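Quick note —
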Amino acid sequence: MKQITTAIVSAIALTSFATPSLAAPLIVDGNLGDWGILTADNNGSSYNLNSGGDWTLLGSMEEDSNDRSNNYTVGPNEGGQNYDAEFLGVALQGSTLYIGISTGQRPDNGKAFFGPGDIRIELGNGTVFGIEVGGGIGSSSGFSDAIEEGAYGSLYELNPHGVTTGHTTLTSQLAGSLWLNPDWRLDPIDDAAGVEPVQILPGTGTNLGLVDYIFTRDAFTNQHAIIELALDISRLGLVGNEQLAGLSVDWRPSCGNDELHVVAAARSRPFNNELPEPAGIGLLALGLGLIGRLRKKPV
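Predicted structure written out below.
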């Protein structure tokens, strides 16, 4: 059965956001180098997160760089690199919220092994948003282009083992579209971990328009894909940075075998680049944290 692992990362390790640095501004281009994330094949990825300067890291979750193994079987605790959920980062630059994901869910995995889930955002008050990822039909021949906002969305059918058996093109649910309170399709593998929301169901929720979005498809490496997006926090009904407290971001392959989950830090003042006073560092460490929860596959 799927194993749930919970990791709590100390806020002290993330307080470097307060020290000004030369970190480059974040740009939605399908390359996470501006985050400090290097994606490379054969376990060559590294996650040396930048923070400071123009943007603030709200939280991140790391699984692994890649599994190497790939037995082409999904099921609980299986799947290998094709189903890897590797990295999820959530950051704030001004009033713009950024989300970056690295994954082994690539279209050139082939139709049966490709079915990226949609991104789920939940506010501290329980309001839920979804962002359509798209993806198209997987093909072993691969692609050299990328999916950007406005491309057709995708709904994937999977069997009880998590293998993709069908694909529906969504002409009214576009890649990069933001949805308020949609209904969700749950992952097909029901075990002790339960089932989780993985795909926005068409015809549900309120369409709030497109965000700045890209999903690379074979652009940089042979083992990874990048999903990256940005939207102003006002699109989520937030008027101040302090309202980000409790915001959570989730992403999974549609099979639900791997999971990335980040909870943004609770804040008592707006985010900025001022160095906190020594007396406040302890309180900041208590207030800032992230909880990562993933469904871990053995390598």
